[in-house]
């Protein structure tokens, strides 16, 4: 096609206006044989149309390039693509979301039933629980949970359900994760000399890109609860691997109720979460666990033989049943309690019930007192034996269990720099105020139960009984002496007018 043909196609009026168009064979130049002004007007009109056509073509090409770039580059980068619903998926290019997605793919492919325990995300889920429960797979148009800024995402696993730990670890590394494994001795076997050297996994920390997943390994305990161990940084561990100080779990051992789980869809990902997220969140700040001192208990019984008479064994059985009944009753009321006095001493010194104490001792903060506590115990089959003091001053309750085993409940009052509980001498009516340094509560395991004890156990016991000393005598009178509260801890309190 010649230039003449192009010009005629662009502007057909050229033929109608008597323009003389010629073409030289050598150079193919076009000659206009008309007035110069007419020539300029014609070229101006031609140039405008050509420029307009070129601009239209360029704009169309640029628009097509933008669509191609968005579809084939940006969507591949964030792993979401274009949403099937109206609009685009917002935030799914975040490092946190992509790391969690890959971790869930890893665990699902290996049938590892992990569940989400991350406090920050569970709190967000709890605030939007109805929305989360009604979400369907792939329906999310915006990343609201897993894309929030944070250093870790915490998941948990019940170890007895993990069948292929070693292969899982290798596959994780093949998928690009860098993982650290933390192990320790199994505390459940500390009471059995021949098995105390067994190591168990406690924690995994796996990083991908700039985000880390913390997998907390829960182990079953005999009290039908879950336990996780302390994450200890040993000498060979790279302290810069992750910001360990920001971990939500592992600063100390922890104990949790066994949660019922449910599957939900969060940010387009299917995950398991506790069915009652709020209850799990409430457990976290109060989950610290301390073990009974099994090694010291064995040493104690090597020096002082245990009482295995029929009477002692019968008392231990009755005391355990009474404690289980008391724990069940107080749990229904939502009242915290801990092992106190002689029961606490038995746990600390010999990991068991002192057979000659003849009662079970529990402590309760007065702010946790419920007005229906007496009727609740009576309904459970424990009649009230004694009531000393008042709620506002030195309250103490005693209930009669079977086989002449008594349940004593001491209520503790908090002052600025100490705590105290009251005591009343039954014969004289004198009131005593027993002083204790301030303490916090930890979980422990005692007679196959998950119960609380003062975290500052030795200070608590010594405030009650004086400094614990090793004694060489084997007589029962020595044991009885240790169970007598030290009188220097008591202040005589006058009766209120």
Explain this structure.
The N and C termini lie far apart (121 Å). With 497 residues, the protein is α+β, with helices and mostly antiparallel strands. The radius of gyration is 39 Å and the shape is elongated. It folds into 3 domains: 67 residues, no CATH class; 192 residues, Beta Polymerase, domain 2, CATH 3.30.460; 200 residues, Beta Polymerase, domain 2 (2-Layer Sandwich), CATH 3.30.460.40. The strands form 5 sheets. Strands 12, 13, 14, 15, 16, 17, 18 and 21 form an 8-stranded mixed β-sheet that branches. Strands 3, 4, 5, 6, 7, 8 and 9 form a 7-stranded mixed β-sheet that branches. The protein has a two-stranded antiparallel sheet with strand order 1-2. It contains 14 helices and 21 strands. Keywords: Membrane, Transmembrane, Transmembrane helix. It comes from Delphinapterus leucas. InterPro entries: FKTN/MNN4/W02B3.4-1, FKTN_N, LicD/FKTN/FKRP_NTP_transf.
């Amino acid at each position: 096609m010649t230039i003449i043909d192009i010009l005629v196609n662009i502007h057909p009026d050229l033929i109608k206006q008597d323009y003389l168009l010629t073409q030289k064979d050598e150079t193919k130049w076009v000659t206009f044989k008309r007035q110069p002004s007419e020539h300029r007007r014609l070229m101006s009109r031609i140039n405008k149309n050509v420029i307009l056509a070129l601009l239209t073509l360029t704009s169309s090409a640029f628009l097509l390039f933008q669509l191609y770039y968005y579809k084939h580059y940006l969507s591949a980068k964030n792993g979401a693509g274009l949403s099937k619903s109206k609009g685009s998926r917002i935030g799914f290019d975040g490092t946190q979301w992509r790391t969690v997605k890959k971790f869930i793919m890893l665990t699902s492919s290996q049938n590892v039933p992990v569940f989400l325990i991350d406090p920050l995300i569970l709190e967000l889920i709890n605030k939007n629980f109805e929305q989360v429960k009604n979400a369907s797979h792939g329906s999310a148009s915006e990343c609201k949970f897993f894309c929030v800024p944070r250093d870790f995402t915490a998941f948990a696993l019940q170890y007895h359900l993990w069948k292929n730990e070693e292969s899982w670890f290798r596959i994780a590394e093949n998928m690009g994760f860098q993982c650290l494994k933390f192990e320790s001795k199994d505390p459940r076997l500390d009471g059995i000399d021949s098995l105390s050297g067994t190591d168990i996994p406690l924690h995994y920390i796996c990083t991908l890109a700039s985000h880390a997943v913390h997998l907390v390994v829960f182990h079953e305990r005999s009290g039908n609860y879950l336990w996780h161990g302390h994450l200890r940084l040993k000498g060979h561990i790279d302290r810069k691997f992750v910001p360990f100080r920001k971990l939500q779990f592992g600063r100390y051992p922890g104990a949790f109720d066994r949660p019922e789980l449910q599957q939900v869809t969060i940010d387009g990902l299917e995950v398991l979460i506790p069915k009652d997220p709020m209850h799990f969140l409430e457990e976290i700040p109060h989950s610290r666990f301390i073990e009974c001192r099994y090694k010291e208990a064995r040493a104690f019984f090597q020096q002082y033989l245990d009482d295995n008479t029929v009477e002692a064994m019968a008392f231990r059985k009755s005391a355990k049943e009474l404690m289980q009944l008391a724990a069940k009753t107080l749990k229904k009321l939502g009242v915290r309690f801990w092992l106190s006095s002689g029961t606490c001493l038995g746990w600390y010194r010999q990991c068991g019930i002192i057979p000659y104490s003849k009662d079970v001792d529990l402590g309760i903060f007065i702010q946790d007192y419920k007005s229906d506590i007496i009727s609740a115990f009576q309904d459970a089959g424990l009649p009230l034996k004694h009531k000393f003091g008042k709620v506002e001053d030195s309250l103490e309750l005693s209930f009669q269990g079977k086989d002449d085993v008594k349940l004593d409940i001491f209520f503790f009052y908090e002052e600025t720099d100490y705590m105290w509980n009251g005591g009343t001498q039954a014969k004289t009516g004198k009131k005593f105020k027993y002083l204790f340094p301030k303490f916090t509560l930890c979980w422990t395991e005692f007679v196959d139960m998950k119960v609380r004890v003062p975290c500052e156990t030795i200070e608590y016991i010594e405030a009650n009984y004086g400094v614990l000393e090793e004694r060489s005598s084997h007589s029962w009178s020595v044991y009885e002496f240790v169970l007598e509260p030290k009188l220097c801890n008591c202040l005589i309190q006058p009766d209120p007018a």
